[in-house]
Amino acid sequence: MVFNDTVKFCGVYLLYNNEDIVYVGKSNNMKNRISQHKKDKEFNNVKCIVFKDEGLINLYEPYLIQKYKPKYNKEFNCGFKLYWKAGTE
User: Which of 12, 44, 54, 58 keeps 20 to 30 A from 88, CA to CA?
Assistant: First the structure.
């Protein structure tokens, strides 16, 4: 994804160090938020998932954190396991 300076993307992003997912985050302005991570996280690639519906972001981010357990994310503890419907991943 190429970031355009005039467009603010909202969605979920994954920071990678080589092949490993090291952080999963969400933002209403992914370009700015990812830039902030350069100060305190080591990563060399980013993948973004852009959503039209902001409500989906709040479901998808914790699902990805639970699934991949990235080293920079605090353990996501909501008291229950999140499941994603088969075929939607």
Answer: 44
